[in-house]
């Protein structure tokens, strides 16, 4: 399961996000977004994330609103986002 915590309007995601952990991660994200004002999501300390991490990011947008910004997305996730043509949804530059 990912380690999720909020600090200064930023939701920090670290550890592992994968198929086995994503359901628990979604529950935790919903609680954090409901109880905090979050503007940014920081993946600087994400150790591993697969396509389920993108599903978690989509859930974050649903819960937190389309103005939520993602920082320090690992290159492997950026490639998956580009392959899935989701750059505009995550408001990322198409030239990734």
Number of strands: 4
Helix/strand order: EEHEHEH
* Major sheet strand order: 1-2-3-4
Largest sheet: 4 strands, mixed
Structural class: alpha/beta
Please, how many helices? Answer: 3
Strand content: 25-35%
**What CATH architecture label applies?**
2-Layer Sandwich
Alpha carbon gap, first and last residue: 28 Å
* Structural shape: globular
CATH superfamily: STAS domain
User: For this structure, what is the CATH class?
Assistant: Alpha Beta
Helical proportion, percent range: 25-40%
Average pLDDT, all residues: 91
Rg, Cα atoms, Å: 12 Å
CATH topology (fold) name: Transcription Regulator spoIIAA
**Number of domains as seen in the coordinates:** 1
Walk me through this protein's architecture.
By secondary structure, the chain is α/β, with parallel strands linked by helices. It has a single domain, classed as STAS domain (Transcription Regulator spoIIAA, 2-Layer Sandwich). The chain is built from three helices and four strands. It has helices at residues 22-35, 51-64, 75-83; strands at 3-7, 10-17, 40-49, 69-71. The protein has a four-stranded mixed sheet with strand order 1-2-3-4, covered by helices on one side. Strand 3, helix 2 (51-64) and strand 4 (69-71) form a beta-alpha-beta unit. Helix 1 (22-35) runs parallel beside helix 2. It is globular. The termini are far apart. The mean pLDDT is 91.
């Amino acid at each position: 399961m990912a380690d999720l915590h909020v600090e200064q309007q930023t939701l920090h995601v670290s550890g592992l996000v994968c198929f086995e952990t994503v359901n628990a991660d979604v529950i935790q994200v919903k609680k954090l977004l409901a109880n905090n004002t979050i503007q940014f999501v920081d993946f600087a300390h994400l150790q591993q994330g697969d396509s389920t991490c993108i599903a978690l990011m989509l859930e974050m947008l649903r819960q937190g609103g389309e103005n939520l910004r993602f920082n320090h997305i690992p290159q492997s996730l950026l490639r998956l986002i580009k392959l899935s043509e989701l750059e505009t949804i995550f408001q990322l530059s198409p030239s990734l």
